[in-house]
């Protein structure tokens, strides 16, 4: 869905390139249509994004030219506690009760609005969102993950709703960066039951079958180097599990630099980024499609 601002709006576009990041949504169980059902239920709720910022999403709308693809918006604003004291900048003191009574803000109005478009592709349950919109405003991947984790949670939607794991889609070499940390001392891997029909089917299917056989939804493994070893040496099996976890969980490592100081990194530190020009069509979907026809 494209936002159209009138000519009188003073929010002139300052940036001509959009920065796009992606989230992977993994529902368990995941029958046909489950993701759109979850997002449509989730759009009813408001959640805390970060600090005094709150967020909600709009209803995902189907793209008629691309079945299984949906578009919507992430709305972010700042919540103000009107009962708290107000500052009078002129007097550098609390605003007088008389002036405070003159403040009138409609109940449905919220300040500091920011809007970020999203595109959801159902076949691979991946959600692309503007991490930098055309006005240069930013929505960090970790904040976006927090928003979607909260609005799709069972605590909010009810325990009849499927469990949803939200993962920041990392750069291709993110796992390698973690596993090749100098003097790797500890390695943590968390993987949530992946869909066996997505990328890297052989590796994912092995992990999928392993968890299904154990009737498990999630697997966590932690490796700590032995006292007589200089560093951990991840095996082929560990590397495979880490690759699956990169898009269906988390991989985190801790090492030591040349000065002996602790260095800790995770796959979430290296989000995959796409850059598209605002001239590539009139909506986020058309811009993504123009830049990445195989989307």
Structural write-up:
The chain is an alpha+beta fold and 295 residues long. The chain has helices at 34-42, 97-101, 141-151, 154-157, 174-179, 201-213, 236-247, 284-291; strands spanning 17-28, 47-50, 53-57, 61-62, 69-78, 87-88, 93-94, 114-121, 126-132, 163-168, 186-192, 218-224, 249-256, 262-266, 274-277. It is globular, with a radius of gyration of 22 Å. It starts with 16 loop residues before the first strand and ends with a helix. The model is unreliable at 1-15 (pLDDT under 50).
Strand content: 25-35%
How would a crystallographer describe the biggest sheet? 9 strands, antiparallel
How far is the first residue's CA from the last residue's CA? 17 Å
Task: Please state the average pLDDT score.
Answer: 88
* Helical run tally: 8
Instruction: Name the helicity range.
Output: 10-25%
- Parts with pLDDT < 50 across at least 5 consecutive residues: 1-15
User: What class would the helix/strand composition place it in?
Assistant: alpha+beta
Give the overall shape, derived from the CA principal axes. Answer: globular
What is the tally of beta strands?
15
> What integer value in Å does the Rg equal?
22 Å
Oligomer: single chain
Q: Give the SSE string.
A: EHEEEEEEHEEHHEHEHEHEEEH
């Amino acid at each position: 869905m494209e936002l159209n601002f009138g000519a009188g709006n003073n929010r002139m576009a300052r940036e001509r390139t959009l920065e796009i990041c992606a989230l992977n949504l993994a529902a368990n169980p995941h029958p046909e249509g489950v993701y759109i059902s979850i997002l449509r239920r989730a759009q009813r709720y408001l959640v805390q994004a970060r600090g005094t910022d709150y967020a909600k999403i709009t209803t995902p709308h189907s793209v008629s030219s691309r079945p299984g693809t949906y578009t919507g918006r992430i709305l972010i604003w700042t919540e103000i506690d009107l009962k708290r004291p107000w500052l009078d900048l002129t007097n550098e003191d609390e605003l007088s009760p008389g002036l405070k009574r003159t403040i009138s803000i409609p109940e449905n109005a919220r300040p500091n609005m920011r809007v970020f478009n999203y595109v959801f592709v159902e076949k691979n349950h991946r959600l692309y969102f503007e991490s930098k919109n055309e006005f240069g405003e930013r929505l960090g991947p970790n904040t976006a993950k927090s928003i979607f984790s909260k609005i799709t949670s069972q605590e909010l939607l009810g325990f009849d709703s499927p469990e949803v794991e939200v993962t920041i889609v990392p750069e291709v070499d993110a796992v390698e960066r973690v596993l090749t940390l100098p003097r790797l001392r500890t390695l943590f891997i968390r993987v949530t039951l992946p869909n066996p029909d997505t990328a890297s089917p052989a590796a994912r299917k092995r992990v999928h079958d392993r968890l299904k056989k154990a009737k498990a939804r999630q697997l966590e493994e932690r490796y700590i180097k032995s006292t007589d070893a200089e560093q951990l040496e991840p095996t082929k099996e560990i590397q495979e599990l880490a690759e699956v976890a990169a898009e269906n969980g988390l991989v985190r490592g801790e090492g030591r630099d040349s000065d002996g100081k602790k260095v800790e990194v995770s796959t979430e530190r290296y989000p995959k980024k796409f850059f598209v020009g605002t001239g590539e069509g009139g909506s986020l979907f058309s811009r993504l499609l123009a830049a990445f026809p195989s989307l």
